[in-house]
Automatic annotation (TrEMBL):
This is 2-C-methyl-D-erythritol 4-phosphate cytidylyltransferase. Pfam families: IspD. The gene is ispD. Belongs to the IspD/TarI cytidylyltransferase family. IspD subfamily. The keyword Nucleotidyltransferase applies. It catalyses: 2-C-methyl-D-erythritol 4-phosphate + CTP + H(+) = 4-CDP-2-C-methyl-D-erythritol + diphosphate. CDD domains: CDP-ME_synthetase. It comes from Anaerotignum lactatifermentans. InterPro entries: IspD (IPR001228), IspD/TarI (IPR034683), IspD/TarI_cytidylyltransf_bact (IPR050088), ISPD_synthase_CS (IPR018294), Nucleotide-diphossugar_trans (IPR029044). One of its GO terms (molecular function) is 2-C-methyl-D-erythritol 4-phosphate cytidylyltransferase activity. Pathway: Isoprenoid biosynthesis; isopentenyl diphosphate biosynthesis via DXP pathway; isopentenyl diphosphate from 1-deoxy-D-xylulose 5-phosphate: step 2/6. Keywords: Isoprene biosynthesis, Nucleotidyltransferase, Transferase. Catalyzes the formation of 4-diphosphocytidyl-2-C-methyl-D-erythritol from CTP and 2-C-methyl-D-erythritol 4-phosphate (MEP). It is an enzyme of class 2 (transferase). It comes from the Bacteria.
Amino acid sequence: MRPYCTAVIMAAGKGKRMGTDISKQFLPVCGKEILAWTVEKFEASPSVDEIILMAGKEGREEVQELCDRYGWKKIRQVALGGKERQDSVANGLELLSAQTEVVLIHDGVRPFVTEEMIRESIEGALSYGGCVIGVPAKDTIKVCDKNQMAVETPERSTLWQIQTPQTFQRELICRAYEKAKADGFLGTDDASVAEHMGRQVYVAKGDYRNIKITTKEDLVIAEAFIREEKA
């Protein structure tokens, strides 16, 4: 019997790097909002039972309007995010239904997640407690000081670019977020919050197409991917 899984999707960001008046999750790509492309992957997934959408104060009505317009059936709640992404995730964890066993945390502007990634992240969470999707780094990475002088070159074979979903057994991630709050710890992602509690997280191989749409250049790439999928 498969576990009851809840996807907590982050749609509270303002997307300052995009440089547009509209928050990036609401920007249209091939006739549909980025957030809509993303949500529909989880809406269609047989592995996901319900969805919690975390929205910003200014964008909450817009997110609810998308839910109404597209008629998504799995939406449990459109909830208010926090100041930081970590605060938004913490708010979402408090809203999980009683039967939730596994939590998938995903970026609302990462619309090229696949059912295989969703399924593998759930299987990884069941086996290891926590599992994130990622891809091996293609480029050499430099560690620089505040003057942008390279001070270290880590071994590339050990470096992975981490994506989402980041998936965990419910008890583990809830305890990790409680500890982070108590310690005043601010992680860079959900895996780092679990690591702060002393838990290792498994990295499952994702896909280089699973991009996070952050800049205007990403919009061009996203359009190309969607047109290719449609073709």
